[in-house]
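Severity: low
Component: inverse-folding endpoint
Summary: output formatting inconsistent between runs
Steps to reproduce: submit the following structure tokens with default settings.
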């Protein structure tokens, strides 16, 4: 199979994108031991950053024929690459002889589901939609882990997991939004984030780490939670409303 020219579809990566994607790949390799999947995830990150900029800065009419590749074709490519990551990751997990919920490769699955939601909600502007709600449900099921396993992911990849939780919570049904808020609060408490503006900044810092200030990538202490706290309510309040009935 001929590999697509990512420079043509996504646009050449900036120096900051190259640096960030390489660091992102290295962290995934160190955690999962999966070089090929980590490289694919880094390329997807490149696509998300560049296409997000293109969508925000390019005139919509011009973007349809920008450099002879339509915006929809660019989006379709990053979607296909994400679906390939999801497929290959699920195969790797299912080969784990009963360790489906605890294999490190689960981080790829969560990243892929959240990315598919982002593609449909941000690039295609399809929220609320049936497909994003289904993807959010699958994301929630994928995070149905033992507390210790989930806390490892939250502590190892706080900025990525906060992005995943925000993306999933925004597309989820109302009952599930509470679960996403409770889970995200573990990260927010460690980072001492309670104000809506600070939460929004932390959420966007995954794709745009250049804006981080004094970001602490250390693991956090586990917190036992019952009712929604002020942190959880703040997180839930910034999630988009999804008007889909169960």
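Observed output (run 2 of 3):
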């Amino acid at each position: 199979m001929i590999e697509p020219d990512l420079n043509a579809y996504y646009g050449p990566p900036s120096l900051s994108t190259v640096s960030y994607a390489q660091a992102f790949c290295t962290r995934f390799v160190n955690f999962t031991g999966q070089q090929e999947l980590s490289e694919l995830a880094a390329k997807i990150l490149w696509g998300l950053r560049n296409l997000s900029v293109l969508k925000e800065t390019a005139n919509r009419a011009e973007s349809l024929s920008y450099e002879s590749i339509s915006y929809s074709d660019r989006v379709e490519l990053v979607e296909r690459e994400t679906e390939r990551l999801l497929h290959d990751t699920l195969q790797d997990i299912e080969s784990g002889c009963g360790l489906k919920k605890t294999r490190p490769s689960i981080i790829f699955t969560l990243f892929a589901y959240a990315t598919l939601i982002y593609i449909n909600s941000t690039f295609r502007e399809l929220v609320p939609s049936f497909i994003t709600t289904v993807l959010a449900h699958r994301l929630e099921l994928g995070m149905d882990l033992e507390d210790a396993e989930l806390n490892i992911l939250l502590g190892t990849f706080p900025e990525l997991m906060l992005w995943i939780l925000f993306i999933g919570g925004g597309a989820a049904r109302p009952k599930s939004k509470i679960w996403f808020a409770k889970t995200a609060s573990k990260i927010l408490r460690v980072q001492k984030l309670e104000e809506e503006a600070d939460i929004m900044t932390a959420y966007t810092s995954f794709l745009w780490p250049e804006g981080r200030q004094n970001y602490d990538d250390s693991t956090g202490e586990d917190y036992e939670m019952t009712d929604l706290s002020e942190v959880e309510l703040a997180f839930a309040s910034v999630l988009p409303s999804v008007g889909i009935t169960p």
